[in-house]
Every structure is written in structure tokens, then in C-alpha cells.
Amino acid sequence: MQIIADIYPTSPHAKIIGSLKCSQFSDLRTLEFVVDSGATFTTLLPYHVLSLGIDCSDLSRTTRPCYSANGDPMYPYELPKVELHLDKNDGKTNGVEIFVLPLIHCMPPPPRDPQQEPQQFRITNSLLGMDVLKIFKNWIWDFENGQLHLNL
Amino acid sequence: MPKTRLKLKYNKCSNLRTKGGKEKRYLSLLVEKSRLTSATERVSFERRQNLRADYRWISTEKKKLLKKYLNKYVAVKNGEVVLADSDVYNLVSELREKGVEVDSVAVEFVSKHPCCFLL
């Protein structure tokens, strides 16, 4: 049983498409994640918070700080009760792995002030963190064929 | 009615939260489904496949996109640029105005410089 992530020639990072539903919407919404063993939790970054229409004003922030590379503590929002669907590849049927996660993190985009030019942000993929990735015992990076195989 | 195989696995999660002064250990749950049972799941599966194809298309057509949409955000659906804008907020709201489901399009910033991460 495995999940396959794509590695494009333009970037050495592995990316994977997933769908999620959560307490804020009941339908499945699709987004691209970067496979990030550096993230403790799966995290939605600003573009996806905007495009999926997640309202962070209703969410509480983490009580424990999360540290980025420069050592600054951050307190992202917690999105509770998330179901994440990833396509699995067993060579036969179209199956899906469903991860039921107690929470994921959200980093909203900068607030938009109509009086000022909107602050632009570079679109970065949301992060598929170790809360999901730790279940895969074996990872095979196949750069030649542009794939990362995550095996259960 | 197709037979569905459900396999449950608990993934020990190091997700510790302080609640009322107590630390609680939360577990994430993995459900393996060998077949897609509901219509919603099938639609969602197709959407993931289409989105994957569109991100591949962006990667292979990078040179053409650079000529036409340099320093713009492009929204791609079914191998076609449906919208381009230099403002990501406008792009998202215009997609919504057009009735396009934002999660069904691949959106990327077209730049000569590849995006580097420090995660």
C-alpha cells in the first residue's frame, strides 16, 4: 500500500494533492501540499486559508509556540476535526486513505486594508506534516521518475 | 453494492495540548478505503486527478507561461489558463465571481526565479 507524491523538475520538493473537510465546511475541498518532514503538524498556509474560505476569527490559537527556522515563536490557529483524503496506489482500484486528524494548523494571509495596496504573498503549498507522515514507514525518493513513494 | 474494505489504524500522535492544566494525547486515525463508495468521494477523486494534471501542465508549460504571464498568478483548469492577475486576492475573488470553484484550479505565481523554501 503506498501513496505517491510528485517531484517536478522545477523544484526538488515532493508535492501531493489531497482533499479535506473540517468543522467549517462539510464538502471535500482540494489543495496541493508539500511533503514536509520539518512540520510537526499539517498546516494550511495563507493562499489555501484564503482560497478554501477558512474563517480564522472563529478559531483559537495554539497555546504552545511553534518555532520556525529563525527561532521566532509563532502561534498558528488550530482548525479542529479535520478529515484528509489522499489517493492511494495499490495498482488495482481507485482507493483513498482517510486521515482523521484532531486538528491541523492554519496561517491566515495578512488582513486586507481597503485603504492600502494589498500586501502580496507568494503562493506556497500547504504543509503535509509529521502528524500524517509518521505513519509511512518507508519513503523512496525517485528523482529520476519524479516521484516519492510513501509506503505503509 | 461494491464491497468496501475498511481498515483502521491508530497513528500515535505527538499532539499534546494543555487543557485545564492537563496534557492530553490526541490520536489521529487512518482509515483505508479500497473502493470509493459515495458520489462525493468519486467527484473528489476526479478533482484530485485533474488538479494533479494541471500542476503537471504548469510545470511542463513553464517557458510559455513565462513569456505571457511573467510575475502574475495564473489559474489553470483542464490545461488552460482561465485567469491571470498580479494580485492574488483579486484572482481569488474573480474566480468566485465567475462561478469557478477555487479549489478546482491550479494556481501558481509565474516567476523566472524558482521558489526556494526554508522550512
Question: What does this molecule look like?
Answer:
The complex is a heterodimer of chains A (152) and B (119). With 152 residues, chain A is mainly beta. Chain A has one domain: Acid Proteases (Cathepsin D, subunit A, domain 1), CATH 2.40.70. Helix content of chain A is 7%, strand content 47%. Chain A has helices at 46-51, 130-133; strands at 2-7, 14-22, 25-35, 43-44, 66-67, 73-74, 77-89, 94-106, 126-128, 138-142, 147-151. In chain A, the strands form 2 sheets. In chain A, strands 1, 2, 3, 4, 7, 8, 9, 10 and 11 form a 9-stranded mixed sheet that branches. In chain A, strands 5-6 form a two-stranded antiparallel sheet. In chain A, a hairpin with a 5-residue loop joins strand 5 and strand 6 (73-74). The longest helix of chain A has 6 residues, at 46-51. Chain A is globular. Chain A starts with a strand and ends with a strand. The mean pLDDT of chain A is 89. With 119 residues, chain B is of the alpha+beta class. Helices cover 34% and strands 34% of the residues of chain B. Chain B contains 3 helices and 5 strands. Chain B has a 3-stranded antiparallel sheet with strand order 4-3-5, with helices on both faces. A two-stranded antiparallel sheet of chain B has the order 1-2. Chain B starts with 5 loop residues before the first strand and ends in a 10-residue tail after the last strand. The model of chain B is unreliable at 12-25 (pLDDT under 50). The chains are: A mainly beta (152), B alpha+beta (119). Chains A and B meet through strand 2, strand 3, helix 1, strand 7 and strand 8 of A and strand 1, strand 2, helix 1, helix 3 and strand 5 of B.
